[in-house]
Amino acid sequence: MSRLHVAVLGAGGFLGSHIVPGLRSRFDCSIDAVDVDLTKLEYRDSRVLRLQARVEDPAVVEQVTGRADVVISLTALCNPAMYSTIPLEVIDANFTHLMPLVKRCAERRVRLVHFSTAEVYGPRALDQAGLPAREMSEDDSSLLLGPVHRERWTYACAKQLLERVIWAHGQHGHLPFTIIRPFNTIGPRMDFLPGIDGEGTPRVLACFMNQLLRGEPLQLVDGGMQRRAFMDVSDMVEAVCRVVERPKQSNGQIFNLGNPDNDLSIAELAEQVADVFARSVPSAKKPRFEHVSAREFYGPGYADTDERIPDISKARRLLGWSPILSLAEMLPGIVSDYVARYSERVAAAPPPGISKLASSA
Predict the structure, then answer these.
(1) pTM for the complete prediction?
(2) pLDDT one-digit tens code per residue, 329-358
(3) Which terminus of the chain is more exposed, N or C, with fewer CB under 10 A?
(4) CA-to-CA separations, 3 to 13, 26, 68, 70, in angstroms, rounded
(5) Is 338 considered catalytic here?
(6) Three-state DSSP class for residue 154
(7) Catalytic residue among 83, 121, 155, 338
(8) Residue 246, by phi and psi: left (phi above 0), alpha (psi -120 to 50) or beta?
């Protein structure tokens, strides 16, 4: 049997920087690691070809689909602060730029593992009749998005439409595919710190760490009452490896990947992160919290999801997978990594103007 060749698009992002080494440790494979910036991909291996390029480049699409047995597509603009501020760029990055890749995979019958988002479910879990449900299910939940002027849903809408394109190529053509809907995966190297290695507003975990390292209050949008189910990135890597090694079970399937046991409010997350940070950096200022409104923080056009809990029974059944780590188990390593990477750089950096913290990821 020939060696497996995998293309990972978005390899320089948070998830990609963990998935690439995870694949190499699990399989006898070679990897094309593609991204516009590969700085976060610290892993080095002779079987990993680093390609600094854009996924919408036709030459890149031809190269990766011509060489790969499996294409794992992670590329996205997936930051809530962007959805209502640069919606056209969000739509392009999550739909328009990926259409040529999907079509070429379909034409060449290259297996596509595409990362979508839990946000396709919309602001709340609904069953097929549109009635409230506790968990979001891949095959039974209705997908409800807000009105057009609520531009926060541009991301979810673009992601959902691409899901439907991929599904159609699989059902009415010859595209072997798996769609993954991740639920709030966190871990080391997530996002950036404003003014240090990025600009703007990162997602919730990086925002909390930014505030803590600077001795600033942790801002909780609308009091941080939104609930999320957080999962460690190592559990995500294990699930992706199982998708790759089980093509028969995962072909034509959509999988929720998250940890419903780690369901808590953003305010509770802030308290837990702050507690771990205080133990890690005893000399730091005592953490403080302040409430801000969603309109004040994000501006007009924003809307939020009150609760997002995944039904992962399908992944358990078909992949034999279950998430392992509790929030208490994952947070110390994550906080320690942020402190090691950023504490000296934050101390040496000039004070930022205004740094803000997102309410959800």
Answers:
(1) 0.94
(2) 999 999 999 999 999 999 998 765 544 444
(3) N
(4) 25, 13, 11, 12
(5) no
(6) helix
(7) 155
(8) beta
